[in-house]
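To assess whether ligand presence alters the predicted conformation, the chain was also submitted together with glutamine. Input:
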Amino acid sequence: MTVITQLSAAEQARKVRQGEISASELCQAYLKRIASQDEEIGAYLRVDEEGALAQAAKVDTKIAAGHPVGALAGVPVGLRDLLVTKDLETTAASKILEGWIPPYDAQVVSALRCADAVILGKLNMDEFAMGSSTENSAYKPCTNPWDRKKVPGGSSGGSAAAVASDLCSISLGTDTGGSIRQPAAFCGVLGLKPSYGRVSRYGVIAYASSLDQVGPITRTAEDAALVLEVISGHDPRDATSSQSAVPKFRDSCGQGVAGLRIGIADEMSLEAVDSQVRERVDAAIAELKAGGAEVKRVSLPHTKYALSAYYIIAPAEAASNLSRYDGVRFGMRLADDKSLQEMYEETRGQGFGTEVKRRIMLGTFALRAGYYDAYYKKAQQIRTLIARDFEQAFADVDVIASPTAPTTAFGLGEKTSPLEMYQADIFTLSCNLAGLPGMSLNCGFDDANLPVGLQLLAPRMQEESLLRCAGYYQSVTDWHAQRPG
Ligand code: GLN
């Protein structure tokens, strides 16, 4: 008997549409898994049982009446808590937003609802998307489904852990410096960060606006393509939203990799990469080569500055974006009976966690008059050089392959200094600085049975090349079908 929670989202939607299973039955199957397993995993901050069952019933009614249904008919989805949901508490995993019930849906959430997806609840993450382990959640830690003593990665740790453990069929995460790809790698699933501008940021709680992008976390390439088709497209409410047409991404998954040129950059492979990660990634690249891809060396000489530039730009934007949380309009308010200044201080002092405060201070410092040229302007110049490196490299290749992260999942509580944690993202950050699409794909396991991620990057608006690689790779391997015991 097929277990319905192990079907791909595309298969689930097809079965729901054809009346082989009902959306309600599917929804209940996931709710049951969440009830029995999530206490240990900690992927969800909030489960909207009532809302999910009501949405599922609506889909079933439509089908019974013979009405057309959307591409994600009845598919149970989990949403990162950075995505604003109408009438459903949204906290960005921060105490400062505790109790905030948004009056509107993010564009991606509306798009999912239009496609008849069923929203199960809100997923755990690092507070305001700052972190690489989900340990910065103000509510509870999330664990890695492959080893409960390890982190699921971050900051979309809940989104990756939920998909890996079948606590939702697909999820959405956001990626500012690696937050879709790194947790996808640590949890053995597929994470796709679209090109900057591909997906609307309307209703996405802003971390670093020039870098943030929403994307799918799924098990299969086809599901990632399907979700991308649903959430992509121009949105006049996001000024940075692209006018580019949305391709039928699913077509790319079956096109194979014959003739595709894959680049390997020394700068992204000679770093301190764990030897087992190296081996798995090399084997995956060899697999793509066997499928007809051509493998070449490319150079990205400014990669070594990406981390420093990112940790100026992202905190600078964050310091500005987070100034709106002052106890006046959103969520928590403390010292209501004292002066305005005291209210700000108490609310922000107690509402934000340590890492968020660190970023606000870093960003404010970098933007101070007198320091602006030395830090922020320099970082922006590096950003341009990094984007140029990619432009040059992509003149010769269609895709650049590397490990997603230098290691597999590390232990809960293991990384004690902020810098050590920041280094978990050395291979993912430059993609965001250049606005490129990027993907992480499970390409096997190390000796401790922890998943290894292969990162693939492509030129702007060329998500199709990533999906070609992923679709082909998953057709000749079965790592993506493995499930934690
Ligand atoms: N880990 C990086 C950071 O802490 C990236 C986070 C993200 O992509 N949201 O900023």
